[in-house]
Amino acid sequence: MPLVSIGRLGRPHGVRGELLLDGSPFSPDELTALRSFTWRAKDGSTRALVMESARPNNQRLIVHFAGVTDRDQAATLVNGLLLTEQSALPDPGPGVAYTFQLIGLEVRDAGGRVLGALEDIVKTGAHPIYVVKGEREWLIPAAPEVLLNVDLASRTITVALPAGLEEL
Hints:
Elements: E1 3-13, E2 18-22, H1 28-34, E3 36-40, E4 46-57, E5 60-65, H2 71-75, E6 81-85, H3 99-102, E7 106-109, E8 114-122, E9 129-133, E10 137-141, E11 147-151, E12 156-159
Parallel strand pairs: 7-12
Antiparallel strand pairs: 1-2, 1-6, 2-5, 3-4, 3-6, 4-5, 7-8, 8-9, 9-10, 11-12
């Protein structure tokens, strides 16, 4: 089964083996429901982890795994990616897709012209920005008036380019 990233583990929090989790799109309840994870270090080594608890902390989450009982054990997990099986993820709901489902999709303008492939999504305060690379790089706001259609089956995204964007 393909693994998808849930976030990156940050520094230990406290002395009981908890860690900060950055970049997770999931709520604490969704994470604890997933329960089983794979931790991957920068060198590619992996370890199975079972989540015991998760709670919010500002823009991050504080997580705790079974068998990780102190700060020193938690420190061995710092900067590792937390992964889970794609099939275990909850349905994001109607009209919603996970970032990993969008990366690589072909992006076209309303006239059918291929702009390139979606390479990254940059989170901003208002709307995410789609980084599209083709003959040139496009930075396209994912605002409702710009994002016309996302078709996961045909692997395409259709956008209405904002006035002036082509001149940049």
